[in-house]
Specification:
Strand order of the largest sheet of chain A: 10-11-12-9-3-13
Radius of gyration of chain B: 13 Å
Order of helices and strands of chain B: EEEHEEEEEHHEH
Distance between the termini of chain A: 47 Å
CATH class of chain B: Mainly Beta
Order of helices and strands of chain A: HEEHEEHEEEHEEHEEEHEHHHEEEEEE
Strand content of chain A: 25-35%
Radius of gyration of chain A: 21 Å
Number of helices of chain B: 4
Largest sheet of chain B: 6 strands, antiparallel
Distance between the termini of chain B: 29 Å
CATH superfamily of chain B: RNA polymerase II/Efflux pump adaptor protein, barrel-sandwich hybrid domain
Number of strands of chain A: 19
CATH architecture of chain B: Beta Barrel
CATH topology of chain B: OB fold (Dihydrolipoamide Acetyltransferase, E2P)
Largest sheet of chain A: 6 strands, mixed
Shape of chain A: globular
Number of strands of chain B: 9
Shape of chain B: globular
Oligomer: heterodimer
Number of domains of chain B: 1
Largest interface: A-B, 23 and 26 residues
Chain lengths: ~375, ~120
């Protein structure tokens, strides 16, 4: 068995690095950062605790930025298919940076912070690419500001709202995908009611210098336990959410990824975002392949890269994310299959260690989302 | 009490007559995290030294378990297939993986003893 974690170049650390080590985290390299993959409780317990009560994640490796100035929304609309001009102050939306050929440069959250300012959260592994891309396409009055000085915490789970309401009474008024300033335990933060677990919860942007005080205040609540990237991955997989680099990338058309819903109604009339022609063509002609959920029938997990076979044994696609779902109590996966084999219940095989294991196409999310509505 | 020896791949090997009982060490289960799936070799299979012959999967990743010595698989532990978490709870106890009738019983002496394995963990 190989149990060592290799690390090549010096890693960046988040403002919570010392706290992670104090809590006994196992640190691993991820997107150039030393990040906690798990704490002593372990991935299984951390995952289950998030679904039962509340978990605190450090996601400070993600890229935070803002766009300022008159025309910021129109400038971003030139790069994404979402309706950004129609995003009301205090509201957030999931969208995609699309490419001329219809591929996905990254997926991101965009919030209207009011006063001609948009607040963006992008993937850690893509932030350099994204910010350079956005900066290169801005008209003169619009300015991009990277917020490397801010940390990002995610408080997720059915008890998250009650915990936060004790430290920040105003948080109770946040609707799902609401965004705005929020003082938490006296610390000035920017919060959104969103997350990456399928549970109700908040993502909280905080100045780096106050991140540890905020984390300690949240961890002091009896309902809250820290959780690492391992649980974050198994939670998002059960929730059927895409991981950039696995389930979507520069070669993925949003339509085949099942992300056509991100295209705003007005944008579908205008078709004036990067890749619009290729995305429109796939929407109208139907995608040749589709991202689907897959449930193996046995107990063996099928990891990313596993070949998907049809009933006749022909290779027809690949698993893009796969593992074990602690709340499901069973293995689960997502991947791409030809559209004719994408219907729920379609029998497939997964080629795990050269053995074809029976599996079926399954509806996603694997567990119902429990967002506040 | 029979002697237990160890490999650099973090397996333990206990000799009972000419049969070696093989499992993964507590260090290995700790590093793997929550074990959710085990695949064991078919009894009757002949394995070469260092041949991958079992798989242990945690929530996060899959790892191979290697034959510490050449031999013939005579028995496997169904208990860990039914309850993979037993590997986390009793890695060096009830959660043995398989038993090998050794091709060369003398080769057992070439494995690390407990003190050597402890020293190996210090340097790893």
């Amino acid at each position: 068995m190989s149990t060592d974690h290799a690390s090549a170049s010096p890693l960046l650390t988040t403002p919570l690095d010392a706290l992670h080590r104090e809590l006994g985290a196992r640190m691993v390299p991820f997107a150039g950062y030393a990040m906690p993959v798990q704490y002593p409780a372990g991935i299984m317990a951390e995952h289950l605790h998030c679904r039962a009560q509340a978990a605190l994640f450090d996601v400070s490796h993600m890229g935070q930025a803002s766009l300022h100035g008159a025309g910021a929304a129109a400038a971003l609309e030139a790069l994404v298919p979402g309706d950004i001009a129609g995003l009301k102050p205090g509201r957030q939306r999931y969208t995609l940076l699309t490419m001329p050929g219809g591929g996905i440069l990254d997926d991101l959250m965009v919030a209207n912070a009011g006063g001609e300012q948009l607040f963006l959260v992008v993937n850690a592994s893509r932030k350099a690419v994204d910010l350079a891309h956005i900066a290169a396409h801005l008209p003169a009055p619009v300015r991009l500001e990277a917020h490397d000085e801010r940390a990002l915490l995610a408080l997720q789970g059915p008890a998250a709202a009650a915990v936060l309401a004790r430290l920040a009474p105003d948080s109770a008024a946040f609707p799902f995908m609401g965004f705005g300033p929020l003082a938490i335990a006296g610390i000035a933060c920017l919060a959104s009611r969103s997350g990456y677990t399928g549970e109700d919860g908040f993502e909280i942007s905080v100045p780096a210098a106050q991140a540890e005080a905020l984390a300690r205040a949240l961890l002091a609540a009896p309902e809250v336990q820290p959780a690492g990237l391992g649980a974050r991955d198994s939670l998002r997989l059960e929730a059927g959410l895409c991981l950039y680099g696995n389930d979507i990338d520069e070669t993925t058309n949003p339509i085949e990824a099942g992300l056509g819903w991100v295209i705003g109604k007005r944008r579908k009339a205008e078709w004036n975002f990067p890749g619009a022609a290729a995305i429109r063509a796939m929407l109208e002609d139907g995608p040749p392949r589709l991202r689907v959920g897959i449930l193996p029938e046995g107990r063996a997990p099928a990891r990313a890269g596993t070949a998907i076979l049809d009933a006749g044994g022909a290779a027809i696609g690949q698993v893009t994310s796969g593992g074990f779902g602690p709340s499901l109590g069973a293995p689960l996966a997502m991947g791409y299959v030809p559209a004719r084999l994408a219907a729920e219940g379609t029998p497939l095989h997964l080629l795990v260690r050269d053995k074809p294991l029976p599996a079926r196409v399954a509806a996603m999310p694997f567990l119902p989302h429990r967002y506040i509505r | 009490m029979s002697e237990t020896r160890f490999t650099k791949d973090h397996e333990w090997v206990r000799l009972e007559g000419d049969v070696a009982v093989v499992g993964i060490t507590d260090h290995a289960q700790e590093a793997l995290g929550d074990v959710v799936f085990i695949e064991l070799p078919e009894p009757g299979r002949d394995v070469a030294e260092a041949e991958a012959c079992a798989v242990v999967e945690s929530v996060k990743a899959a790892s191979d378990v290697y034959a510490p010595l050449a031999g013939h698989v005579v028995e496997t532990n169904a208990a860990i297939v039914d309850d993979p978490g037993l590997v986390n709870r009793a890695a060096e106890g009830d959660a043995w993986f398989f038993k090998l009738r050794l091709a060369d019983r003398a080769a057992f002496a070439g494995l690390m003893d407990a003190a050597a394995y402890a020293a190996f963990l210090e340097t790893a």
